[in-house]
UniProtKB/TrEMBL annotation:
The keyword Lyase applies. Residues 2-114 form the CENP-V/GFA domain. The keyword Protease does not apply. Belongs to the Gfa family. It comes from the Bacteria. This is GFA family protein. GO terms for molecular function: carbon-sulfur lyase activity; metal ion binding. PROSITE patterns: CENP_V_GFA. It comes from Sulfitobacter aestuariivivens. Keywords: Lyase, Metal-binding, Zinc.
Amino acid sequence: MLSGSCNCNAITFTVTGQVRSISNCHCGQCRKQSGNVWASAVAEQANITITGTPRWYRSSASAARGFCPDCGCFLFWRHDDETSMSFALGALDGPTGLRIEKHIFVADKGDYYDIADDLPQHEH
């Protein structure tokens, strides 16, 4: 089980079951919302228990981003047509045992940094 929270602890969450697609997202929306690259993993929504009430920002016609309405921490991303949801690795408490597997949306990467590892890079 993984557990995490926002900065002010108004939103906490636990993740059970399989975690997949552990990635760094370089898209413009993630960079703006997080301040840089957004590191996340994916689990089935049924395996993510959220305590507190995140606010959901409709970032596109088909997806929403969940954040704490008090401290503003960007915690979740979900697509309307999927049963899974992404959660912020940076919000997790303690050791996770997880490792970044890939980079996504590298076509939108900021010009102020380089990707300096040998992990797979996906344009989208």
